[in-house]
Every structure is written in structure tokens, then in C-alpha cells.
Amino acid sequence: MVIAKKVVTSQRFSYITHVMEQESVRLAVLQDALERRLDVCSSEGYLNVFPQSLMSSYLVDYIGLVVCTRGSYSFKVNEENMEARAGETLFLTENVHFQIESVSADLEYSLLFYRITPIRDILGNTVMMMRLYATLNPRPFIVLATGEEYALADYTQLLPSASYTESTMFDGHERKLLMLSLTYRLCSIFNRKVVQGGEASGHKIDIFVKLITLISDHYPKERSVSFYADRLCLSPKYLSSMVKGICGYTVQDLVFKAIIRRAIFLMTSTSKTIQEISDELNFPNASAFGTFFKKHTGLSPKNYRISSGE
Length: 310
Known about the structure:
By secondary structure, the chain is an alpha+beta fold. The protein has helices at residues 2-36, 120-123, 130-136, 149-158, 169-193, 202-218, 225-231, 236-247, 251-269, 274-280, 286-297, 301-307; strands at 40-42, 58-60, 63-70, 72-77, 80-85, 88-92, 96-103, 108-114, 141-144.
């Protein structure tokens, strides 16, 4: 009996050691992918610690998701502090500065950063759906309890970090299809979780997505409801009523959110002056931009930049 227990203990120790070695390898691979800025950077499963690259400010020029399945961690994005806990997923938009601040002792997470570029040709206009969340929410990230955390985490195992040097053409096609599948799943989550009023018809949702696309393309210069209504061949009154019913915001609210989000990015990620940002966003002068920005954020552009550490 004693010998049997020793054998079981030895086997368990060997298994734990093997798992730890595998995690160490995957952590090293993820660190290397982040340093080399590969098109896909993946934890390739669950990890308990974050790679060194993310312990200081890291420019995430990817679509990013970090799924927390146990414990918690705190982080900051563009100097804004937040925490994610077990059962929550952090979604990062492109071109944000991300840094891990602290982690709990029992942390378990999976991570996947990927670029849309390799699948843009097969996504077509569907990629515009990825702009929906960014337009509705001017913040550069969102933490959601999607109810699909383990399904999202599975993609990190299916999509390993790689530089697209597949050995056969089938490997490349499989990777693209997995990325396409994940992108559709994210679109579904954003549509269900971020857009309210689930009773809206499919036709109205289609119009709404087209509106988001138009706003993403034209918000720096076009801010009137009539411009977007004309492009959609609708009356301004009908468009306004429909959008309000779907997401709770007016068309102009959505345009303003896009402007604020772009302004925040320019202030926190570039050295452009307030005047240059004002010009890029087509305000008549820096004073008008300052008044607009303070109305929507509570801070003047100068004070916002100071508070963000710029």
C-alpha cells in the first residue's frame, strides 16, 4: 500500500512538473511573439503569469482579448485603471497602450491578440462590424461577462502564435478560417451585449451597422443627422427614432463618441498639439474643440493629457 501511494505521488509530481514546463514554454513563446509583433500572439492555452512585455506599457495594434477564468488582475489602458475578474473577458481595440498592474495568486487566463489584415480579403464588409463597439463606446476597452469565456479561451489553443509560415497551404487556410470564426463570434457578442433592444428586426440591425460604418468613415467632417440619413436613403426623423430604439443613443451621440474616442487616442498616443488635433477633427479652432471635449469628458484637453501622464 505504501509503495502504491509512493508511485501515485511520483506520477502526480511528474504530471505537475510536465504541466509547469509546458506553461513555461508557452509563456516564452508568447513573449517572443509579442516582441516580434507577429500577426497572432497567443497564450496557446491557460497561463498563470503575464509575459514581461505586458508588465510595462505595450502598444496593442491588434484586436485583443484576455479571458480571465480564475482569480483577477488589474491593468491600465491609456492610463485608465481597471480590474478583470474570473468569468470576465477584456476586449481591447486597436492602437491602445496596455499594461498589467497586478495579479492575484490564483490567476488563470488566456490571451489572444490578432490582426484583421490576413483575413480582410475574405471578411469583406463584415469587418466593419468590429467598429460597432468602438463607435458605441469611446473608451479603448471593455470588460464583459459574456457567458462564453471558455469558448473564447478555446481559440487561444486553436490559434497558436505564428508568423504565417505554414508548411502547407492547408495550414494557412485553416488559420484564416479560425480567425474568421473568432471575428464572427466577437461581432455576435458585441451585437448582443453592447447593442441594446434585442427585439429590433434584422433589417434595422443591418441599417444600424451600415450607419456605424458611415460614421467611422465620415465623423471627422460630417456631424449632421441629415448627411447620414441621405446616405441610407432614410428620413432624418426615421433614422433618429430607429437608432434611439436600438442602442439608446441619438445619431449625433454616436458621431460625438467617435470624435471623443479619436481625440483621446491622439492625446494619449501621439505628440500632436491640441491645435493640431482640433484641426484634424475639423473644429473651427482649439477653443471650440476644448469646449466640446470638456463637455463630454469633464476635463479640458490639456488637463486630460496631464492626467493621463502625457
